[in-house]
Amino acid sequence: MWDGGHLGALFVPSAMLIIFGGTFGAVATSFPMSQLKDIGKALGMAFKETKHNPSLIIEELVDMATIARREGVLALEQRAQEHANPFLRDGLMMVVDGTDPELTRQIMELEMDALEHHHEGWAKMFEAAGGFAPTMGIIGTVMGLIHVLGNLSDPGALGPAIAVAFTATLYGVSTANLIYLPIATKIKIRSKQQISEMELMLEGILALQAGENPHDSSRRS
């Protein structure tokens, strides 16, 4: 607009159909439906801000460890059942049920690995879209140029027609670098934050199960 252009020149429905439709089709062909149906959840993870406060987790674990040392782990059963975090709730219930510490660690680490793999699959979908979109842009541009070269009878219309053809490339490159790839990066960042919190919970649960002094454990954390 500063250079005398107008936004309407960037709105080309046919190019949008090729870029967005082609990218979606390529992604849908590349990934199973079980993964595609989670796109909404993936977008929610990318754009929904989640508060992360490791200090509060440590304080809560120290409080529960203190109760366990004074009254025994069975005193945590009610609190464990009502806890809002499902990962911490499951871990505490295994401690209350007397599950072997090594088995507790294995189960919780498997759960963490499964969640991390799940998030990685979400990120890969958007990374794939970021790879397909520029290619679709080139396809759209080539199709537009073929249409232009097939109608050379009106030289005055060549300029606008060529501009419309190159709009497809703009769509492809811009959506890849401004939408798809940034979303994939955000999902990876959020996943690392969530896994880090789960690792903290796991170590706290194992320390609680081992009957360690909670204040010594919190100082080491």
Tell me the major beta sheet. none
Structural class determined from secondary elements: mainly alpha
Helix content: over 70%
How big is the Rg?
Answer: 27 Å
The secondary-structure element order is HHHHHHHHH
How big a fraction of the residues is strand? under 5%
For the residues shown, what is the average pLDDT? 87
Number of strands: 0
Shape: elongated
Which segments are poorly predicted (pLDDT under 50) over 5 or more consecutive residues?
A: none
Count of helix runs: 9
Note the gap between the termini: 54 Å
Characterization of this structure:
With 221 residues, the protein is mainly α. Helices cover 79% and strands 0% of the residues. The chain is built from nine helices and no strands. The radius of gyration is 27 Å and the shape is elongated. The relative contact order is 0.18. The model has no long low-confidence stretch (mean pLDDT 87).
Show the helix and strand layout.
Elements: H1 13-30, H2 33-36, H3 39-47, H4 54-71, H5 77-81, H6 86-96, H7 101-149, H8 158-210, H9 214-220
Helix pairs in contact: 1-7, 1-8, 3-8, 4-8, 4-9, 6-7, 6-8, 7-8
Compact description:
With 221 residues, this protein is mostly helical. It is built from 9 helices and no strands. Helix 1 packs parallel to helix 8, helix 3 crosses helix 8 and helix 6 packs antiparallel against helix 7.
